[in-house]
Every structure is written in C-alpha cells, then in structure tokens.
Design a protein that fits this description.
Helix 2 links the parallel strand 5 and strand 6. By secondary structure, the protein is of the alpha/beta class. It folds into 2 domains: 240 residues, Ribonuclease Z/Hydroxyacylglutathione hydrolase-like (Metallo-beta-lactamase, Chain A); 57 residues, no CATH class. The strands form 3 sheets. It has a 7-stranded mixed β-sheet with strand order 1-2-3-4-5-6-7, with no helix packed on it. A 6-stranded mixed β-sheet has the order 8-9-10-11-12-13, covered by helices on one side. It binds zinc ion. Zinc ion binds next to loops.
Amino acid sequence: MSQILAIDEGCILNYVEIANKLFFIPGENDGRYPFSNSLFIDDAIKVLIDTGIGSKLAAELAKEKKIDLVLISHGHEDHIACNYFFEDAKICCHKLDAPPIRSVEKLKELYDLPPGIELEKSIDLYLRDFFGLKDSRVDLEFENRHVFDLGSIKLNVIHTPGHSAGHCCFSVPSERLVFLADIDLSTFGPWYGCIDSDVDQFIKSIENIKGLDFEIAISSHKSITYGRETIKEKLDAYLNKIFEREKKLIDFLSEERTVQEIVSQAFIYRKLPEPKEIYEHFEKVMIEKHLERLARKNLVRRTNRGFKLL
Ligand SMILES: [Zn+2]
C-alpha cells in the first residue's frame, strides 16, 4: 500500500451531519487531490459515495459501518482507491466508467500517455504504488436518472459527462442536496485531460446542474456550499474558467502558432506542477480539445505549422 495515502497519522474519521441521515466525510488533506471527500447515508440501506478519503479513514469506516452500497461518481484513481476495503458492499457506477474501475490498465489507456517513454512507466508506478490502485469489482452499472431507494431517502443519479464519459452527480431531492463530484467548484476550474473527457459535454453538464434547485452542494475536493444563489454563482465562476482559457487561446492565435508554442503558454495550468512532463501532457490534451472545439465552430483553422485564427 502506498506510503503517501497513509501519511497523515493524525487524520480522524469525521462524520459531519449535513441533513437527516446524510453525513459529509472529509477526505485526508481536506479532500484535496490525491484524496477526495465522501458522503455517507445512514438509511436502511447504508451508502458511501466514493472511496478516495484515504486508506486509514476508509479502513476505519469499513470497520465502523456496514456499508451496503458504494456508489462511485467516476472512475478516477482519487475516487476509487479504497474500493477494496468494502468487501461486502455492492460497488456501483455509471456503465461508461465501469471499465477503468474494473481495470487499472483501462484507466491508463484513458490517460493516453505516449508509449515507450518514461512517462508511461511513471503513470504505472504512480497508480499502482503511490495510490495502491487495484482492479475493482463493479456489481451494478447504472445510467442517467437511476433512482436508489434507500429506505426513507431516495437518491438520484444525474449523468454529467465531460470530466469523464461516465461522470455522475447524485442528488437527494428531499434535502435539495447534490453531490457534485468533480464538478468540484475549485478555482482551478474544470479538468478534461483524459481521452474520454469532452469540453462541450462538460459545459452542458454544468449548465444542467445550474438549472436544478439545490440548497446544499458537496464537492469532491472543496467541501460544502450552502444556499441556492451561492451554489449558482460558484458554478458560474467554475464554468467561466473554460471560456477564460479559450479567450487566451484565441488571442494568442492572432498569429500562426504550433501546438507546442501554445502548450508552453500554459493557459490551463498557468504554472505546470511536478512532474512537469505529465502535466505538460495534460495541458496539451486539454488545449487540443479547445482547438478541436474552435475548429468545429469555424473560429480557427489548421495551417502547415499549427493553428491560426480564421
Ligand atoms: Zn476525476
């Protein structure tokens, strides 16, 4: 098991009651990557949403509560790392994200790192050693609008693709609560660096959530937001990050630029974190998705060297 995921010796399993039978469980490091936050529902059927809280906390939770269902928002490592602690629970996810949950190799394919170079080796080490990621069972594959009847609480699936193909939010209409997962309201903004990520779908998904009425929103990496207007403002600011990035890209393309020249501007990351070569790859994937989007809208054209505004 990873040393890093068990690093925080002082981290205590904390159930924060946010509504009747609904408990927010902050992940280690306040749920910041490589961890994530969870929601625990203490109904007749006991549910845990996501297992990225950290191995110590997940082990404690598995001991304290008899979890019946583990619902996975999407198949990224920081949301599924501790699935294996919940041996007696049914593990459920959207059908499009079942493959990378079942197979670490599939997840690696979605990161699509160039083959045969150090990068590819390091993603393998990263997922298997750092995260301790293993192939996981998936017992139930759901789709949009699936309803889980947990006893007194009904939990709805809202398919929100974009970050990944099968990314889902979960709502509890009786409490006007939504678990936003990686529509995470971070100041970084939306992340779409995998091959199954899609900028247009991400925009639609955020708009879709914005159109629904919630009083409580839980983010996988940014805790809880209360109040309908505040939630909408944060969703707007989050969505606008996509357009801000695109505006910078459009301005830069007033002259012909190669993809590498664009990537070196780091419009998405601003400053590439370490390991730089991996984040440069994500920067490139996300920039290419913007270029495709702008080409579809007839705003940019491909040239011999790269791209230019039309
Ligand atoms: Zn994710």
